[in-house]
Design brief:
269 residues, alpha/beta, TIM Barrel, eight-stranded parallel beta barrel, 11 helices, 10 strands, globular
């Protein structure tokens, strides 16, 4: 069983537990349930921003703990002050050391799009995402059928949220609903766990022409981001590169300065 399948088995058990503890009727009473989410699509197209979706991630299945004691308020507020376009917050406990309260806290301190990064296997989680203040949900093509993707997407859009559909290979493109999904290309091979930006570069021209495109994992140099932008990507999901520093928000600020400097040089060249 690969790591994704292992996570999905665990996630289904977890969802059943949460459903019994926090029924849908309770989720609907949340202060966020009738609020208007912030559009990630719009923020990724803002010319004064870099397109970086800065992630708050304590650990990962491949690396273990990256930054166990990072301060969520300081990090997320710092990310946005540094010029990030949006936030991504992990809410999976077992494999990523996150929790729903992390996203709730990020929502309290920031007015910006927030992606709930988790493994969606049930429509309950879509409702839960809305109840904790998420603006965007993640759907992983490799984990869901075409019908599930359609169903969860419709529910998310009906609730005012947006959907980042993550693909890992060209053969998953048929699961993308044009115009409804922000398309994320994950550069990590789910079987070997190796990361290569060639995944995003190779598939860029095959993505739906008018879609908002996000590349995920593996960016650690300003030149890489600029190259991916030139290839047509609007968003750049970055977590580990920032989180491995003692002050992730400072790492983000320095990286954004480098990107802007590089872009200025390119324009002037």
């Amino acid at each position: 069983m690969d790591i994704l399948q292992e996570i999905l088995v665990q996630k289904k058990k977890e969802v059943e537990e949460r459903r019994s503890l926090f029924p849908v009727k309770l989720l609907e009473k949340s202060i966020y349930f009738n609020s208007n989410p912030v559009s990630l699509k719009k923020y990724l197209l803002r010319s004064e921003l870099t397109g970086i979706i800065a992630e708050f991630k304590r650990k990962s299945p491949s690396k273990g703990f990256i930054n166990k004691y990072a301060d969520l308020e300081r990090t997320t507020v710092g990310y946005m002050q540094a010029g990030a376009s949006a936030l991504s917050v992990l809410t999976d406990a077992n494999y990523f050391g996150g929790k729903n309260e992390d996203l709730g806290a990020a929502r309290k301190f920031n007015f910006c799009p927030i992606l709930r990064k988790d493994f969606t296997v049930d429509e309950y989680q879509v409702l839960e995402a809305k109840s904790i203040g998420a603006d965007v949900i993640l759907l992983i093509a490799a984990a869901l059928s075409k019908e599930q993707i359609k169903s969860y997407t419709k529910l998310a859009l009906d609730l005012g949220m947006e959907v980042l559909l993550e693909i890992h290979a060209e053969d998953e493109l048929d699961k993308v609903i044009q115009g409804e999904h922000i398309v994320g290309v994950n550069n990590r091979d789910l079987k070997s766990m190796k990361v290569s930006l060639e995944t995003s570069l190779g598939i860029a021209s095959k993505l739906p022409a008018n879609s908002i495109k996000v590349t995920e994992s593996g960016i650690n140099k300003a030149e890489q981001l600029v190259h991916l932008k030139e290839a047509g990507y609007n968003g750049f999901l970055m977590g580990e590169f920032f989180m491995k520093h003692s002050r992730p928000e400072m790492a983000c600020m320095n990286f954004i300065k480098e990107v802007k400097q590089l872009q200025k040089q390119t324009v002037n060249a």
